[in-house]
Amino acid sequence: MKAPARLGLYGLVLVAVFAVAAFTANTVVPESTVQAWAEDTESTTHQGHEEGGEDMDSTGHEGHDAGAGSLGLGIAQDGYQLTAVTAPDALGADGELSLTVTGPDGKPVTDYELEHEKELHLIVVRADGTHFRHIHPERGADGAWSIPWQWEAAGTYRVFADFVPAEHGEGITLSTAVQVPGDYDPAAAEPVAETTVEGFDVTVEGDLVAGSASELTMTVTRDGEPVTALEPYLGAFGHLVALRDGDLAYLHVHPHGDAPKAGETSGPEIVFEATAPTPGRYLLYLDFQVDGQVHTAPLVIDTTTGGAEGEHGGGHEEGGDHDHGE
User: Fold this and answer.
1) Which whole-number Å values give the CA distances from 110 to 101, 115, 142, in the listed order?
2) Spatial contact of 134 and 127, defined as CB atoms under 8 Å apart
3) Is-above-0.85 flag for pTM?
4) What spans are recorded as compositionally biased (Basic and acidic residues) (predicted)?
5) For 303-315, b where at least 16 C-beta lie within 10 A, e where not — what string?
6) Boundaries of domain holding 208
7) Which has the least CB within 10 A, 3, 33, 143, 237?
8) Residues 240, 276: one domain?
């Protein structure tokens, strides 16, 4: 069987397992999400969508013309593939989350470039956007990545591996779905432009305009006072992950400014540049560090037309109680 056929068969099996597991776990997974993940898996194994075609994203918007690979929704891209993904199969069970990245030669990749001070960034988030984790597993001599792991809530999770293979020289994001059995009570993502995490207040301002680079400014305060003691974390004063609500399409976000020097501090503002591929709602997760402790602030904003007065991506109702973090 040729490689594309094998990948296509693997994708169909993955979707079938995903559906059966969801039923077995009494999981209420939105049909649009299942369909979007299934279509993205299929399109990736066939090297992307045909040119000129228009698709519907999981929220019903037209113009989702970016390939699954570029949005991190495929298990394979440019000859690289996510394989041997294992995790604990029960809530509260101690175990390991592990995976292997294979290259175009079919062998495990063992040579990576540093990106944001790490060889591989692992993002794990539930289908509804909650229980977000950004962690950094260790790589063994055989190329397998692993980290101690325990699931705290049931549901379907997306596992993203973000890395730069040395031979490839460009960033790649691969992902797959992992099912955790148990009762699943999905949360609806509502716009949240201001949130409080572990005593820190975080706000987002700026227009997120679909199809073009957008500047988003995160501001961190505590007890009403600006926080100016932000410490370098992953080569910047903050690290932002953005995911499209519904299918969890992965956006690459870049901080502004030069990389900070050791011992340097900043704040209260952190500025990022993000590009939303389609109109819709986006889940933002800001990691920042103060006094050696990393905090994660979840926010939710919608895209705008970019021109209407007062129509800002951060201009939504404040203080929403929807938790996009842990």
Assistant:
1) 9, 15, 8
2) no
3) no
4) 309-326
5) bbeeeeeeebbbb
6) 194-302
7) 3
8) yes
